[in-house]
Design a protein that fits this description.
Layout: H1 4-65, E1 72-74, H2 77-85, H3 87-92, E2 95-99, E3 119-123, H4 128-134, E4 143-147, H5 153-158, E5 167-171, H6 176-185, E6 190-192
Parallel strand pairs: 1-2, 2-3, 3-4, 4-5, 5-6
Helix pairs in contact: 1-2
């Protein structure tokens, strides 16, 4: 006697497997589409950020050339390179404030080419020792301030190479050793250290 039930079961099992395989394929396709959308979305986002950054640099450069910026905020190395490359902007760059940059980028070495730079501010930057290496012996620099941007003893020694430095202020905790070194290194400079390590709470 034929056994139709077993035959139907086999057909049902095959159909179920096909549906399952189809569902997996659809799921894989959906995941692939989602991943592609995320990738291209991130890519467009990066492109938009680059576009906005380029527009901001161009706007800042125009302001500098128009004489509208007494203190120039430097937030990336490319802006500094643009200022140095533009003779009109370079002649008006007397005060630079570096904010949240990493001076290990060697493009910041272009700072030494600014002919009338007198004031330099540093806020929350990394590898500030490198900046002091870039600017050593610059005769135009008269004033500096450094805030939350640690420097080592060798960098302090390089400050002595600035022949016309008149004033420097450290808006950060300085050790007694560093304060003593600053006194010996810069005897003719007004050194302001409002936050000596000895005043910090224990």
């Amino acid at each position: 006697m034929p056994q139709p039930v077993k035959q139907n079961a086999a057909v049902t099992t095959g159909s179920t497997r096909k549906r399952a395989a189809g569902a997996v394929a659809v799921a894989v396709a959906v995941v692939g589409v989602a991943a592609a959308m995320v990738y291209y979305g991130a890519r467009l986002s990066r492109q938009e950020k680059h576009r906005q950054a380029a527009e901001r640099r161009s706007s800042d450069l125009a302001s500098i050339k128009a004489g509208a910026a007494e203190e120039i905020m430097i937030y990336d190395a490319e802006l500094l390179v643009m200022i140095v490359a533009d003779a009109e902007a370079a002649e008006k760059a007397t005060s630079l404030i570096f904010s949240s940059v990493d001076f290990s980028d060697e493009r910041f070495a272009a700072i030494e080419k600014l002919p009338v730079l007198r004031n330099v501010g540093v806020y929350s930057c990394e590898h500030t020792d490198a900046l002091l290496n870039y600017i050593q012996a610059m005769a135009t620099i008269e004033r500096m301030w450094i805030e939350t941007s640690p420097i080592d003893d060798e960098a302090i020694a390089r400050l002595a190479t600035l022949p016309n430095l008149k004033q420097i202020r450290f808006e950060q905790v300085m050790s007694a050793k560093q304060i003593e070194l600053l006194g010996r290194t810069l005897p003719g400079v007004n050194v302001d250290i409002p936050f000596p390590e000895s005043d910090e709470p224990r």
